[in-house]
Write a structure and sequence with these properties.
There is one protein chain. The protein is an alpha+beta fold and 92 residues long. It has a domain of 61 residues. Helices cover 33% and strands 11% of the residues. It has a two-stranded antiparallel sheet with strand order 1-2. The longest helix has 16 residues. The termini are far apart.
């Protein structure tokens, strides 16, 4: 879903070789446990800090599992979208 006339912010950043950019939707940050506690951005950051980030596919799958485990035993309230991009450096 995209609102065409919404002023989306634009950001630029430079990744160093080996750095990973992780993008999440509100399904991650707004996931709740059975007590209504949010997983939140801090929950995602805490999980990422403790995780090997060398393989983006493993990182994405792991974060999605962590969010779903956090929500248990409740049913998921939203979809999850997680994308990870790892910059390996310029081609030689």
């Amino acid at each position: 879903f995209c609102v065409m006339d919404f002023p989306y912010p634009e950001e630029r950043l430079t990744l160093a070789p080996g750095e990973t950019l992780v993008l999440i939707t509100d399904g991650v940050s707004e996931a709740q446990d059975e007590h209504g506690t949010l997983f939140g951005i801090e929950g995602a950051l805490d999980w990422l800090r403790q995780t090997d980030q060398s393989d983006p596919a493993t990182l994405v799958a792991g974060l999605m599992r962590a969010v779903r485990a956090f929500e248990e035993p409740a049913e998921p309230a939203d979809d999850l979208t997680v994308m990870a991009i790892r910059y390996i450096g310029a081609a030689v």
